Amino acid sequence: MIGLNIEKTFDFVSKASVLAYDAQALIAREALEKGTGKGSDFLGWLHLPSSISKAFIANIQATAKILREHCEVVVVAGIGGSYLGARAVIEALSNSFAWLMPSAQAPVIVYAGCNISEDYLYELTEYLKGKKFGLINISKGGTTTETALAFRLLRQQCEQQHGKEMAKKLIVTITDAHKGVARITADREGYQTYIIPDDVGGRYSVLTPVGLLPIAVAGFDIEQLVTGATDMEQTCATRVPFAKNPAAQYAAVRNELYKRGKKIELLVNFCPKLHYFSEWWKQLFGESEGKDHKSIFPASVDFTTDLHSMGQWIQEGERSIFETVISIDNVNHQMEVPYDEANLDGLNYLAGKRIDEVNKMAELGTQMAHVDGGVPNIRITIDKLDEYNLGQLIYFFEVACGISGYLLGVNPFNQPGVEAYKMNMFALLNKPGYEAESKAIRKKL
Ligand code: PA5
Fold first, then answer.
1. Does the structure show a pLDDT above 80 at 6?
2. Which residue among 151, 245, 247, 372 is least crowded, i.e. fewest CB within 10 A of its CB?
3. 202 Cβ below 6 A of ligand 1
4. Would you put residue 88 in left (φ > 0), alpha (ψ -120 to 50) or beta?
């Protein structure tokens, strides 16, 4: 089970003030359960882990097997919730140098449709030349410009390189059951498809085929991922009292910190493999809570790397931040600091110690320094980095985000704000149907 330690926030908010959230947090948790809160059309994720059947997992694994057998590279095309969850898990579990070590066992996973960079797309298409590659096109709405643009390019390349018939085997679409161009194209071309349930929003969709298929293609155990999430579903169930419910406590303490002026939450790791987990977390909380001109700004740092860049700001900058550290108890490999006769670097005092012991002391030292410097610290521990624990973390943060959003008083399941840039972009690009907006925006230039 993951551990949650909020003791190091109590110099900044009183324990009593956090415990006082007990009733409110229960109401928020019940609102999720009963579907009586804001955004209740999008609660399909709440019991998703426990409702995933073995047959469904087997079906995903069978599709993954086909892609694994036929492809050297698989491109996951999607943006926001349609790729961050998969990338978070895949990068957390992959060898840090996997992309430099193509193997016969698992295809290299690369990502597209998450930007509109011409250089990125050019370099990706160059990289794919001459390679057997597959494509997982993921878009719930099925019309997202970034993803559709990348898919148009990559689908053509796939058909040119492998022939139209083979491309049908190599392209899988994950989208809405009925609407959107991704659905229309997939049905017309005869691609295999998976459905993103109507009641699961993008950023809560990692445990649907959106996350499960790419993760399975990368060679990871999606059954264990789901088991971890299912266990966490029990741990954070409505019946669990506040004192034992880590998601409710985390939601409570971060809301109390926010009230006391801590406007920025830094998700911290001491393992670079968690970089994309933080990206997923930032989207989850940022898109869920950033509404009505309020909410914590979710940011992230990779330590100890960023202690040498952002460390100064964190230690001595404006005291408006708090940290949430994801700490991994046990690493997956062992390595000791070697002895060196000359000891010119002065490191012999560490000789024979595990590298992880040095990292753990850096972690403890950083926590103490930052708390002393005025930065409250929340600590989330997992036993090790594996599918089971990542499944737990994912569900923990999802349910915590739902509770936290309700405590803040926002709808954690919509994202009206993301439309503004699209509207301007379409107007500037003279998209048919945006004539009036085009005229209006040009006056502002
Ligand atoms: O969480 C969300 O809803 C968003 O981040 C979406 O996932 C993102 O905008 C991509 O949308 P779509 O899957 O419709 O292409």
1. yes
2. 372
3. yes
4. alpha
